[in-house]
Amino acid sequence: MTTITSAPIHPSNLPIPVDLFVSKKHPGLPRGVLGFADSSGKIVFRVNRQSSKSSSDDKMVLLDSAGNPLISIYRLLDGSWQGFKGNDGEKDLIFKVQRILNKFTRTELEVFLVAENQEELTCDFKVKGCHFQRSCTIYKGDSIVAQTNLMHKLRQIYVRRSKFRLTMFPGSVDPALVVALVVIFLVNGPKKFQILDKLPVSI
Q1: DSSP one-letter code for 162
Q2: What is the mean pLDDT of residues 130-141?
Q3: Taking a C-beta distance cutoff of 8 angstroms, is the pair 112, 124 a contact?
Q4: How far is residue 80's CA from residue 75's CA, in Å, rounded to a whole number?
Q5: 176, 95 in Cβ contact below 8 A?
Q6: 131: number of Cβ within 10 Å
Q7: Which pTM does this prediction carry?
């Protein structure tokens, strides 16, 4: 398996599919902090919620294994999301996300990458899935970029939803961007199924 190393936000080629394991109960992280670990248990990404007295917008920060901020994720009052590079205010906008469907068994998002001198935004990615099953698929056109799914085992009747797998397929999409989109998906479904609603808040 190829280990993902953190880097600035730019395309990175994955030669083979890469699995990360998503949970709020990873050893080495405070309980309740959402982490993305590789097959050896090493934390590759984690998510911090932040509270600001000067803003009513929700904010989460995606960090690498060393705690460096990669993407700041803001939920706006209209229900849309924006992602900015790093954690230095709202300067370098990377993407915007709009929710186009939110039903009990189905959520769909459209993702728009922001480029300099771009007059009109076009949909670059779509995210579709079911929160109850911890299942979503990220599409770029007709190609599948990544998928999440529960870890079913042979002859297992009850499957725990507290830990699931994220598989990223070979391509040129930055793994940090993929993880950020998965995080946004996890907080966009029906509230009873949202995995991030009880994340610890840092001031």
Answers
A1: S
A2: 92
A3: yes
A4: 6
A5: no
A6: 24
A7: 0.83
The H or E element containing residue 179 is helix 175-186
Q: 20 - beta bridge partners?
A: 166
Cα–Cα distance for residue pair 50/125, rounded to 1 Å: 26
The rounded distance, in Å, linking the Cα atoms of 79 and 54 is 19
Distance CA 165, CA 176 (A): 16
Q: How far apart are CA 123 and CA 83, in angstroms?
A: 15
Residues 69 and 62 sit within 8 Å (Cβ to Cβ): yes
pLDDT tens digits for range 78-116: 889 999 999 866 688 999 999 998 887 889 999 999 975
Which pair of structure tokens corresponds to residue 153? 């085992």
Tell me the C-alpha distance between 125 and 95, whole Å. Answer: 10
Residue 108 to residues 104, 137, 180, 193: CA-CA distances in angstroms? 12, 10, 15, 15
